[in-house]
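QA checklist item 7 of 12: single-chain prediction sanity check.
[x] sequence parsed
[x] length recorded as 352
[x] structure emitted
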Amino acid sequence: MGELFKKRPPWPEKVIDISIVVPVFNEADALINVCQGVRRELTRIGITWELIFINDGSTDSSDSILEQLADEDQRVRVIHFKRNLGQTAAMMAGFDHARGEVIIPLDGDGQNDPADISKMLEVLDQGYDVVSGWRKDRQDHYIQRNVPSILANKLISLVSGVPLHDFGCSLKAYKRHVVEGIRLYGEMHRFLPIYASWHGAKISEVVVNHYPRRSGNSKYGLERVLKVLLDLLVVKFLDRAAAKPMYVFGGCGIFSLAISLFTFLWMLGLKINRGTSFIATPLPLIAVVTFMIAMMCILLGLLAEMITRTFYESQGKVIYNIRSTRNFQQIGVAPEAETQQSGREDQYRISR
């Protein structure tokens, strides 16, 4: 674990070794144990740390307990949301405010084991950028939680090409450069390893402990499967066509146009060969509707292309990722800082 925290790039804030991010929603009974477990483990490891609780609009006594924990230890930081916004928003807030070189999300219900943190840091020290936890012996309701999770994970791995067993496990370790610049929406936090894979991150997986829930109630049911499938569709679209949406919309338009042309020729053939009246079959309606769909898809594709170009050009975004450079100097960065940053995967322009 020594190599992981040796060199530090010059961040604007004081940088520490590790940030633990814990989204919280009505988990008052588990918070003290979670805090004590994390403190005990990170003190044993002997690194600098912070523990960030994000209170996601809790309606129980979580507010007062978190304030008490923050008063007792300055390394415990708390963010209170005005209302419940969901786990992804809470995790995104934690990432935005984290100062650690390594960021590790953790569930606030006490089902994750803080002792697994050191195991993940050891794997990161081997050159990986992301370490994902695998709850191999998951202590949840088998039919309601485990079976849908197994099926969803297989589908996500198949579609994304990232072979993980447990995308839904919150316990993951990310090097800081992996999550910088990534924005998450909906239920997208579970797909963060996929985003990291797109940017060339090396991903590993380790088996982690999972304890039965001792207090509170699960916030998720079978309806979450539908949300995951819809978000997976978005992820696949972003992977294949975010920078070239015309390929998707235009492809649908050409397919609809082909159906329209085929239907028109079929309708014409029936008229010529059999004398069948156009209005005697639904073929004219099908030809017109599919032609209109084709035109709408093509026009949407052109509009999406304009929006995509506005997105990149107005914000100065680039469509490539640079792992390291030699003999180039970033604007505003001292020459000695460039060497420190050579291992980071960052997005920036190179001035000519």
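[x] summary fact logged: The first helix runs from residue 28 to 45.
[ ] second reviewer sign-off
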